[in-house]
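hey so u asked for the seq, here:
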Amino acid sequence: MSNQSMTTKLTRTKAIEVLCNYPFKFGHSVGFTLLTELHNKWIKEMVFGKDDKTLQAHRGSYKTTAVSIALAIIIILYPNHKTMFMRKSDDDVKEIIAQVKKMLENPVTQQIVFAIYGVELKIIKSSAVELTTNLTNDPRGTAQLVGKGSKGSLTGKHFDRIFTDDIVNVQDRVSKAERERTKTVYQELQNIKNRGGRIFNTGTPWHVEDCFCLMPNPKKYDCYTTGLITSQELAELKERMLSSLFAANYELKHIAAEDIIFKNPVIGGEQTLVYQARFVHIDAAYEDNKDYTALTICRKINGKYYVYGRLWHKAVDNVKAEIIAIRQKFCAGGFYCEKNADKGMLAKMLKLEGERANTYHESENKYMKIVTYLKWEWSNVIFVDGTDKEYIQQICDYNEFAEHDDAPDSLASYIRKLYGGVQYQAIL
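ran it, structure tokens below
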């Protein structure tokens, strides 16, 4: 339904009918044109259902989009209801609150509200985590929509509706402590739900013992039933992802993590293939014989990643001169290093030697980075002559519980930086 057809001669009855019976068409009108009749069913259950419910759906199924549309509709149709929206992190929450605000400000929404109430919709209270409109007349002054990260305080809060969305994520897959923390937070939600209220959960399972085992009335939509991903796209995803991750994220089932991820490395390219690379990536160790310092130089040529890698069981301070000599030998553009552990001191040290160095803050889970970016491109990786055998072996020995991961982490970081990280993030 177009903006014009939505709003032409819009009556109160028609406006209510659209929001109640065809919310996915409302979604189309405010910019979410890929929603289907399936999403219409989801949104209606989110807005009008009564009991606590759980919707599990595969990655890329637009379930969060459906939640954001449901939140906007609840603000319009149930203006005195107090709703909380929870995700894993505060930043994730802010993104959805901003999305709901944008929907409410859309001219289509404005005309729908005017048709229903005869008033102009105004947002009278707005922040990164709260929204209130002039439709409410609740004397308590509580915001209509409140966003919370799962680590925020819930003390003293009470809500008629609570939505959890992706409060289970990769952290719950790799950390038992995080799984237990998430479960504790979820159980606390029952204490802040008003009498007669409900909790609606959406997300994708990551581990057989994650919080979804506590969530009631689950309805599952795997990648084979929604029709949202073509068979060719699924085949490509399955080829390039770990079987355990594909099963969890797309088939909504759990299988054991693989012991061997990176098989049959290709070795034998000439070193000249990596000359004049844009930078040298350093994954630094800070104590001898405790961890490894890994160095990676990489160039992409005709779809192939030519990699020169070195690995030392030494602190980076003790191989600094060799690292600089390697950078000079390959005429690489400069150094690129994570600053989480040393607050950027390695980069400062290299700059004092006359080298160029840039830093980055790592916020992505290391395991997911490796099995996403490096796994995706593994069939295109060629190790050039002179690469340390230990560097290659550490990559081939890597699994979810590996003691050492410096070489695969360095190479995965390199691939993410240069060649399409946004694309890979989108498929998970």
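The radius of gyration is 25 Å. Residues 176-192 form the longest helix (17 residues).
lmk if thats what u needed
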